[in-house]
Amino acid sequence: PGYFDFEEFADLKNVEIINEVDLEEPMLKMIGKMFEDKKKEPLVEKITSLKLVRVREFNIDKKDFDSIESATELMDKNLQSKKWDRIIRTKGKKSFTNVYVKKGSDEEYVGLVVISLDMIGRVTFVNIVGNIDFEAIGKMSGVNIPQINKLKNKEEKKKQDQ
After folding, report:
1. Rounded CA gap, 149 and 138, in Å?
2. Sequence-separated (6 or more) residues with CB below 8 Å from residue 44
3. Beta carbons of 18 and 59 less than 8 angstroms apart
4. For 78, phi and psi rounded to 5 degrees?
5. Which residues pair with 118 in a beta bridge?
6. Residue 110 exposure: Cα atoms within 13 Å on the Cβ side
């Protein structure tokens, strides 16, 4: 339920791909085993509970910015119609980033999608599928997404309030 095929929405066939990551469940389990000997069991559990980590980053020509922006708006509507929650929306004059989460049947997060577009010529799509733990994702990816820290703090506060 946490999978989202963003390639069907963005016509990026003629665009230069600069980063491509596809880590499927068997590879994630193998990566988890690499950490078992290092006494990082909590992180291992979180990595091995993921099903897919998928990243695509493209260089785009400034003349294509409007069409890519339209495609990302279509993705936004599609995600929300499929019960993805947009938890973060940042928009500036030359960039925007949207972050979505999908809850499973037991109220745990089973999917994460990040769509980021900037006027300097990059569009990035991220989809993480499985039992989502925001802290583990940050440690595993090494990517600093300040908005994820805000979400983590919001979730922690929500748990404390209950």
Report:
1. 9
2. 32, 33, 35, 36
3. yes
4. -65, -45
5. 95, 122
6. 11
Structure-block tokens of residue 78: 């599609």
- Decide if 77 contacts 92 (C-beta within 8 A): no
**67: its two tokens:** 């069409």
Q: 42 in the Ramachandran plot: left (φ > 0), alpha (ψ -120 to 50) or beta?
A: alpha
The full length of the chain comes to 162
Structure tokens at 121: 């010529």
Q: Is residue 124 classed as helix, strand or coil in its secondary structure?
A: strand
What are the structure tokens assigned to 8, written together?
């069907």
Q: How far apart are CA 52 and CA 127, in angstroms?
A: 8
- Per residue of the chain (162 residues), what is the pLDDT tens digit? 899 887 766 566 667 888 999 999 998 888 777 766 655 566 667 777 889 999 999 888 878 778 888 888 888 999 999 999 999 999 888 788 999 999 988 878 999 999 999 878 888 999 999 988 776 666 655 544 445 555 556 556 666 666
